[in-house]
Amino acid sequence: MDTHENGAFAQPGFDVVGQDLSDRHALRRVAGLSTELEDVTEVEYRQVRLERVVLAGVWTSGTVRDADRSLAELALLAETAGSLVLDGVIQRRDTPDPATYLGSGKAKELRDIVAATGADTVICDGELTPGQLRQLEEILKVKVVDRTWLILDIFAQHARSREGKAQVSLAQMQYLLPRLRGWGESLSRQAGGRAGGQTGGVGTRGPGETKIETDRRRIRTQMSKLRKELKEMEKSRTTQRAARHRAGIPAVAIAGYTNAGKSSLLNRLTGAGVLVENSLFATLDPTVRKTRTPNGREYTLADTVGFVRHLPHQLVEAFRSTLEEVKDADLIVHVVDGSDDAPEEQMAAVRIVLNDIGAGSVPELSVINKADIADPDRIATLLRREPHAVVVSATTGEGIEALLLAIEADLPHLMQEVDILIPYSRGDLISRAHSQGDVLELDHVENGTRLKARVPEALAGELLQAGAADAG
Ligand SMILES: Nc1nc2c(ncn2[C@@H]2O[C@H](COP(=O)(O)OP(=O)(O)OP(=O)(O)O)[C@@H](O)[C@H]2O)c(=O)[nH]1
Ligand SMILES: [Mg+2]
User: Fold this and answer.
1) pLDDT tier for residue 330 given thresholds of 50, 70 and 90
2) 379: in domain
3) Is residue 237 part of a domain?
């Protein structure tokens, strides 16, 4: 479903409402953000959860282009969730307003835009506090959601497996818990019969428990149930991974920004046939495939969920078990969309998440994908920053052979234990066992040296051959 290939972001640029660009406090309208529906079927598809939205961002640092890109990405996310984007505005501020996210004056301007466009929802480009959400809603008179909720919503729509659904539910509940409405309202209603009680002290507990407290308790119970279920589901995967590890099969994980072409690459490398879609967060469930290097060495290749700037921490936590596939890998193949406007930024965002999940020290091989449509100059620039990189196109197959060789070269040289009789004529092998591995036992017997050692796979092969030659 090419829901966002409508060229809505082809012409980035700000319309300035009111004053000139240098005015730090102007509310800037981002041009060309509105969704252009291509045909009727698309309208019908979106009808399921059609929301007419206006986007709002606070631009705190970086260049105009950065701010522009951030809102354009928010628009992509909104469209992926099935919304119709009507307009987008950005306010330049040092920090978001603690009460209303946008300054209250600008919030009122936004209210007029919302009214004029007939929007029913405003999506803010950040994670808002419960108070900000509520107060902004009071001014705007329409539903306000933030970037975090939007991403959670996309994940909820795309979750297919039982595990994926449970992970998303957990993340959503964690987000909702502090944001349940009516807190103040219920409390004051309850405190009505009592003296004071504004802050809901000891006296507000017990049989007169508020609705909100009941809701919270129910959510907490639900969350711990989900956590338990997830632990169970995680077990079989952990067991499989441990078995592969014991068998000395190295694990390679494909990671990268959402829509970079990770699944396409897995398909190209292994014929896995996993879902490829021009949509954000198409893949939520990890797929692991066994495959071989050109010289025949077996390894596993895992495709997993894509990352994005400011990936909600609730999701990172809920998807922890899925992301372990990446953390425990021997090698991360970091795929980046070479045709993107700012591939360096995408890589930086991915590395932040990798560090977050404890995968920061796993060796990384960069793969610059979509070479067939990327600007060669941009690729050259990227290559200067990422010297350990391969340029490929998952679509045309260009560069795939080089990638396979690069993976082969980067696989860890696993140690293998040997217990073998080496003829005296091959003293060279014994000294290599000393220098490259751990010699556990050495015994000079009648027809050679009995060697028990842990050595790199390649050397193990040579030792076995020499031993076999002797035996035969
Ligand atoms: N032109 C071109 N398009 C590509 C290439 N690789 C992938 N694509 C397209 O990019 C889009 C995303 O591809 P996926 O493989 O689903 O990307 P992904 O990284 O798995 O995305 P998520 O799972 O959503 O995070 C699809 O429309 C692909 O057809 C490529 O080398 N060239
Ligand atoms: Mg994918």
Assistant:
1) very high
2) yes
3) no
Angle at 121 between CA 117 and CA 124, to 5 degrees: 110
Strand locations in 173-237 (E) = none
Among the bound ligands, the one closest to the CA of 400: 1
CA of residue 344 to ligand 1 center, whole Å: 18
Q: Indicate whether residue 186 lines ligand 1 (CB < 6 A).
A: no
Residues 327 and 359 grouped into a single domain? yes
pTM of the model: 0.76
Q: DSSP assignment, residue 330?
A: S
State the average pLDDT over residues 82-110.
93
Number of domains in the chain: 4
Closest CA to 30 of 65, 80, 3, 62: 65
Q: Of all helices (H) and strands (E), which one includes residue 390?
A: strand 389-391
Nearest-atom number in ligand 1 for the CA of 265 is 15
What is the number of the ligand 1 atom nearest to the C-alpha of 259? Answer: 21
Element (H, E) at 226: helix 211-246
Q: Which of 115-129, 169-183, 263-277, 420-434 shows the lowest per-residue confidence on average (mean pLDDT)?
A: 169-183
For residues 420 and 391, membership in a common domain is answered with no
Which among 75, 77, 90 has a CA at the least distance from the CA of 35? Answer: 75
Point out the ligand 1 atom lying closest to the alpha carbon of residue 371. Answer: 31
Q: Is residue 119 part of a domain?
A: yes
* Domain end call among 170, 204, 232: 232
Whether residues 29 and 148 fall in one domain: yes
Question: Ligand 1: which of 6, 80, 264, 326 to mutate, most ligand atoms within 8 Å of CB?
Answer: 264
Give the structural domain span for 222: 162-232
18 pLDDT tier (thresholds 50, 70, 90): very low
Q: How far is the CA of 370 from the centre of ligand 1 (A)?
A: 8
Residue 430 belongs to domain with CATH number: 3.30.70
Q: Are residues 280 and 364 in the same domain?
A: yes
Would residue 185 count as lying in a domain? Answer: yes
Ligand nearest to the CA of 395: 1
Tell me the residues surrounding ligand 2 (ion) with CB < 5 Å.
262-263, 282-283
List the one residue out of 395, 394, 412 whose CA is nearest residue 403. 394
